[in-house]
């Protein structure tokens, strides 16, 4: 071979060697296990056919999960390291508060674990949807869900604000103040969160006396009911609470719409807004 031919062949040989040495493009995960009810639902909304193997047992609870029926077609897990390891996943999805020992052990065993923080705003829902799309290699589907979310947000934002007040009220007298997903939902619905007016932030206690004095136009809650009498429910049977709720101001907002973030979360805002728009509330 002539010197010229050798000089021309050298770059081609080097390029071939570099391509051979380059790592192959990452393949989408094929056997996913989710250990958190919120990652469960994002994965169910986004995963491709056969990609999602297992979800947490809470995914089948209709009080907690909007996609409970869909979860019945999947294997359930209880977040135990041994249990998840034996499923031989190539990806585990977890919440940042999922059992820390389980997450740590799975990582030590060489299993890829991706953690997702809880949503505290509509913006964070959007961010987590896009990130899940990256993790599952399902970016197109993630974009569709974000578009659905954005359409709902735009529709709600286009309605004139009602300026009615609402107090969220749950078992053990808890309410949702500034910096929570529920507070963001209240604002999106065009209502005013009583907790904000009272200077409460995060998940905080709202004594029944303060609730009564605040005189909210609406009281929103999950309508939790326990199988047996419980102190957590005592305020809901108090005469003062019943007097307020009896005026037609109680609005049941199923917890499954606010526990996790997804386009279905906007249903809570629609329920609030529809209640505020009813005759007798305006």
Attribute tags:
about 280 residues, alpha/beta, 12 helices, about 45% helix, elongated, disordered N terminus
How would you characterize this protein structure?
Helix 6 (122-135) packs antiparallel against helix 7. Helix content is 44%, strand content 14%. The longest helix has 20 residues, at 139-158. Residues 1-25 have low confidence and may be disordered. 38% of the residues are buried. It starts with a helix and ends in a 5-residue tail after the last helix. It is elongated, with a radius of gyration of 25 Å. It is of the alpha/beta class. It is built from twelve helices and eleven strands. The strands form three sheets. A five-stranded parallel beta sheet has the order 3-2-1-4-5, with helices on both faces. It has helices spanning 3-21, 37-46, 68-71, 81-86, 100-108, 122-135, 139-158, 181-188, 194-197, 208-214, 239-249, 266-277, and strands at 32-34, 52-56, 75-77, 91-95, 113-116, 165-168, 174-176, 192-193, 203-205, 218-221, 250-252.
């Amino acid at each position: 071979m002539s010197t010229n031919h050798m000089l021309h062949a050298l770059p081609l040989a080097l390029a071939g060697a570099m391509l051979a040495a380059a790592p192959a493009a990452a393949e989408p995960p094929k056997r996913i296990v989710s250990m958190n009810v919120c990652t469960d639902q994002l994965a169910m909304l986004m995963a491709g056919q056969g990609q999602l193997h297992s979800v947490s047992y809470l995914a089948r609870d209709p009080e907690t999960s909007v996609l409970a029926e869909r979860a019945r077609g999947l294997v359930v897990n209880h977040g135990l390291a041994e249990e998840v390891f034996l499923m031989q996943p190539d990806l585990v999805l977890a919440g940042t508060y999922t059992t820390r020992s389980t997450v740590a052990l799975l990582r030590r065993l060489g299993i890829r674990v991706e953690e997702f923080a809880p949503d505290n705003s509509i913006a964070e829902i959007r961010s987590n949807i896009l990130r899940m799309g990256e993790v599952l290699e399902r970016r197109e589907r993630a974009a569709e869900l974000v578009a659905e979310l954005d359409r709902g947000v735009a529709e709600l934002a286009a309605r004139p604000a009602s300026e009615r007040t609402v107090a969220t009220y749950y078992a053990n007298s808890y309410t949702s103040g500034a910096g929570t997903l529920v507070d963001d939902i209240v604002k999106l619905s065009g209502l005013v969160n009583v907790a904000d007016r009272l200077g409460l932030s995060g998940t905080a206690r709202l004594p029944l006396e303060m609730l009564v004095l605040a005189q909210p136009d609406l009281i929103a809650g999950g309508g939790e009911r326990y199988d047996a009498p419980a102190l957590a429910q005592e305020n809901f049977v108090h005469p003062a609470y019943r007097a307020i709720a009896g005026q037609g101001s109680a609005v049941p907002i199923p917890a499954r719409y606010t526990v996790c973030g997804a386009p279905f979360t906007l249903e809570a805002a629609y329920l609030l807004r529809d209640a505020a728009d009813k005759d007798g509330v305006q």
